[in-house]
What does this fold into?
Amino acid sequence: MRTAAGVRVVGHGDRRRRARARRVLWGGGELLVTAGLVLLLLVAHQMWWTDREARRGAERAVTALERQWAEEAESGEDAAAGLGAGPAVTAPDAGAATAPEAGAATDPARPGTSPVPRRPYGSAPPPRRSRAYAVLGIPRLGLRVPVAEGVDRAAVLNKGYAGHCRGTQQPGQTGNFALAGHRNTHGEPFRYLPRLRRGDSVVVETRSATYTYGVDRILPRTTARDVGVVRPVPRSLVRPGYGYDEPGHYLTLTTCTPEFTSRYRLVVWARLVSMRPR
It folds into this structure.
């Protein structure tokens, strides 16, 4: 407002409006800063704290399994699942033509080759749901994590475990032993699966035997609903050029891709190389 002499006069109403606008802007800024801090804390919790806690829990579970197996061995208890006493059994490389060892059964997929134990793991009762019962080791990645039955997110995967896909085979059995795990957060056991190369070892330890698989093929990306990758004879239904045509002793590792998303799946396949009683 101006007077007759042209002097601008600021009224109380103008000052109040400006003060109100400043308070609104200040309050809005505080809310944005607070929201940003809360978001950062949530991200830190998800990316660091849950990852740290899951990794520690998985390490404790591995230690507990190994202690339990050692105590059972010392007490002379018969392992409920798997091989009986005897020498190590080796599965020959693809294409090899060797006679089966004495006391070994023959892989029905390839007559005269791929000896397997007379009493496979599956002769025991199935593992209890969500209970850790084996240890997965990948030397190239420096990884050792528990394997639990099922892929329940809260009870298995979020603990940093590898989850056994129900309906697939168990270690050492003819068919497909399929495992899933987080690639990011919650221990992220499968974060570095893309680093695996053909011929790398993947070791599965149970209370009765150690199974060594050799990485054979990698499917860089497929859909989350590509169930063909975990079938007894694994082959992608989305990308049929990836997979197998004959029965065998397979291991499948699956995780999300790209990182920090769950849109697609990365698949690593391995073949059984050897089995050794504990």
In short: Residues 12-75 form the longest helix (64 residues). Residues 54-277 form a domain with the Sortase; Chain: A; fold (CATH 2.40.260.10). The chain has one domain: 54-277. The first strand starts at residue 89 and ends at 90.
